[in-house]
Write a structure and sequence with these properties.
heterodimer, A: about 325 residues, mainly alpha, MetI-like fold, flat, B: about 270 residues, elongated
């Protein structure tokens, strides 16, 4: 399979996936309990005029596929509809809450990488030592524990017991936000860090016995150079493969972490919208996050192609 | 690592899971209080005396609620793990052994499911369409099974090319016999690991849903829901939050550790047999 064919196939698959995703998101309105009018009415009183307006605005008298088409057309013009609860523009609502979630995502990714890379390298190169055992165990717990349980334990320990961090909210200024988001980010980072540590450790154990490592040491290269150039580089491919999976894990993690720490981010918006059956908001969030995951997966596949030359050439029979 | 006899850590994991299982089966019968009994005069008090782990803000006994909550913590995840292991192993073996059209069909649908963020799909679908706990169990089976199919299929594919499979084919054994008697035992390590890891995934998924208020009905003693309910009394009775959080963490970690160790043990036992 040539590189071009690979890219085209992936692009085709992505378009197909986006279509399926958007269709499922749209179908939510029809599948939800209660009639579409009722759902779109929200908490407003049902006057005949309002019902007629709603029917006209949402093309409820037209066939399902036509309504899907109108909806998609709107989405492509960045018109994600209005919340049935607050009548606010859905896109505005999401943008308003994005800073908290985005900071949480970036901050936790940073923590995960800064903690996991050295931990994985050390743990793998000093196998079965005390550090290795501790790191392996910590990774095992972090990979298993649900983020909200971990978050509440951290919250109790560091915010209630020690009083180092605030118990609620996200703060106003940037500095305050970083301070407020430290515990939530740590919580969210734990899962991803554990996955990275386990992967890195396995790669290090695999690579460390190879001849080129012995030669590198014999040539007197510095340990840092060996670690970074030889160990880290060899484990970058499997790590890249996992990043799509890590992303979708973090998205779900962010939802419960925001809830556990009382943060008004995008995840909290999703939980609220689902609870109030605010379907336009749910549709928009589901579509956007789903599309983000699909897009990242495509980028990962293409990056794989760029990094690993073996994939660019026709495969020999397995 | 010594894989022949179970170490103390492994025994501790088994013991922890066994305890949770006992609590799930016996439930209210061994609880000191009725887990639903409210006592507003004794709301949100800390551990001590009559209540080992204190009470929540409605005066319900935390310890009794933890014991009763073992049921939803274990039952749903077990159902999910049994469902996904059976379906995933069957489809994975068929995909690997039959190949061609059937394999392509199964794997394309797996790719499709794989591309969606499972936990978010769970929140949106179960939250909006309703159905609660058991709808979530069904949904989780659907969302987790692609992983199982993938892993079993790739484990079976490496076996398919080995000489013993070829000899079985040359001997003219029936397809179902080859798959069940010869192929299945050799992918068993993968199957057992899948079972335990699916249990953990389902435990995390279901308790997350309950924590978000979309799983079990309000008032049900459930570890995830308890965390959501008692977060506001974290300063009054911290144990109402710490205990369920620890229980979920320990149960999930014990199952993951068993999965890790189990894989090593079963696969090396196979290697020793030759």
């Amino acid at each position: 399979m040539s590189a071009l064919a690979f890219t085209l196939r992936r692009l085709g698959a992505m378009v197909l996936l986006l279509l399926v995703l958007s269709f499922l998101c749209f179908a939510l309105l029809g599948l939800s309990p209660g009639s579409p009018e009722q759902l779109l009415l929200g908490t407003r009183p049902a006057t005949p005029e309002l019902l007629a307006t709603l029917r006209a605005e949402n093309h409820l008298d037209e066939p399902f596929l036509m309504r899907y088409w109108y909806w998609i057309e709107g989405v492509l013009h960045l018109d994600l509809g209005k919340s049935v609860q607050t009548q606010q523009n859905v896109l505005d609502m999401i943008v308003e809450r994005l800073p908290i979630t985005a900071t949480l995502a970036l901050y936790s990714t940073l923590i995960a990488l800064v903690v996991a890379i050295p931990a994985g390298l050390i743990s793998g190169s000093r196998r079965s030592g005390g550090t290795d055992r501790a790191v392996t165990f910590a990774a095992l717990v972090s990979i298993s524990a649900p983020p909200f349980a971990l978050g509440l334990l951290l919250l109790y320990g560091f915010a209630v017991l020690l009083g180092w961090f605030p118990v609620y909210g996200a703060g106003e200024t940037f500095i305050e936000m970083v301070y407020h988001l430290t515990l939530p980010s740590l919580t969210l980072a734990a899962g991803s860090a554990a996955v990275i540590v386990r992967q890195l450790r396995a790669t290090v154990i695999d690579v460390i016995g190879k001849d080129f490592m012995t030669f590198a040491r014999a040539r007197g290269l510095s340990p840092i150079r060996i670690q970074v150039v030889y160990l880290l580089r060899n484990s970058s491919l499997p790590m890249l493969t996992m990043s799509g999976l890590l992303l979708s894990g973090s998205l779900a993690g962010a939802v419960v972490v925001e809830q556990a720490f009382g943060l008004a981010g995008v995840g909290n918006l999703l939980v609220k919208a689902v609870g109030q059956l605010d379907i336009p908001v749910v549709q928009a969030l589901a579509l956007l996050t789903g599309a983000a995951v699909i897009l990242i997966n495509l980028l990962v596949d293409l990056a794989y192609l760029a990094i690993d030359p073996r994939l660019r050439h026709p495969r020999s029979a397995t | 690592m010594n894989v022949r006899r179970p170490g103390p850590v492994l025994l501790a994991c088994l013991a922890a899971l066994a305890l949770v299982l006992v609590a799930a089966v016996l439930g209210e019968r061994i609880a000191p209080y009725d887990p639903l009994l409210q006592d507003p005069a004794r709301g949100a008090v800390g551990p001590g005396g009559l209540h080992w782990l204190g009470t929540d803000d409605l005066g319900r006994d935390i310890f009794s609620r933890l014991i009763a909550g073992a049921w939803t913590a274990i039952a749903g995840p077990l159902l999910v793990a049994i469902g996904t292991t059976l379906i995933g192993t069957a489809l994975g073996l068929v995909a690997a052994y039959r190949g061609r059209t059937l394999d392509a069909l199964i794997m394309r649908s797996v790719d499709l499911m794989y591309a969606l963020p499972a936990m978010l799909v769970l929140i949106v679908v179960v939250g909006v369409l309703g159905g609660g706990y058991y709808a979530a169990v069904l949904m989780l089976i659907l969302l987790v099974v692609p992983t199982d199919i993938r892993l079993v299929r790739s484990a079976a594919l490496t076996q398919r090319e080995l000489p013993y499979m070829e000899s079985a084919r040359v001997l003219g054994l029936s397809g179902s016999r080859i798959v069940l008697v010869h192929l299945l035992p050799n992918v068993l390590p993968t199957v057992v690991t899948n079972f335990l890891l699916d249990f953990v995934t389902a435990l995390v998924g279901l308790s997350s849903l309950s924590f978000l208020g979309m799983g079990v009905p309000v008032g049900t003693p459930d570890w995830g829901l308890m965390l959501a309910e008692n977060r506001s009394i974290l300063d009054l009775n911290p144990w109402s939050v710490i205990a369920p959080a620890l229980l979920i963490t320990v149960t999930a970690t014990a199952a993951t550790m068993l999965a890790d160790a189990g894989y090593d043990r079963i696969s090396s036992a196979g290697a020793r047999r030759g």
